[in-house]
Write a structure and sequence with these properties.
Layout (H helix, E strand, L loop, with lengths): L1 H29 L2 E2 L3 E3 L10 E2 L3 E3 L11
Parallel strand pairs: 1-3, 2-4
Length: 69
């Protein structure tokens, strides 16, 4: 029983890591610039004029609008 529980936990861990890598790579392609390390855990939407700084983390977010300039 313990072995089965460990296997299931490991599978969920792998799925969570793959999901984070997927959403992070999609975000890097869609934003205008990324200056440092980012991590996106869930589906997030950004416009093409979004600039992200260093050490940014999102758990699902929508950013839209024209910006300040």
């Amino acid at each position: 029983m313990r072995l089965l529980k460990r296997i299931i936990r490991y599978c969920f861990f792998i799925i969570r890591k793959q999901r984070t890598m997927f959403y992070t790579s999609i975000t890097k392609m869609r934003v205008a610039e990324v200056k440092g390390k980012i991590k996106v855990n869930f589906k997030s939407r950004f416009n093409s004029s979004t600039y992200l700084g260093n050490n940014v983390h999102f758990n699902g977010m929508t950013i839209n609008g024209g910006g300040g300039e």
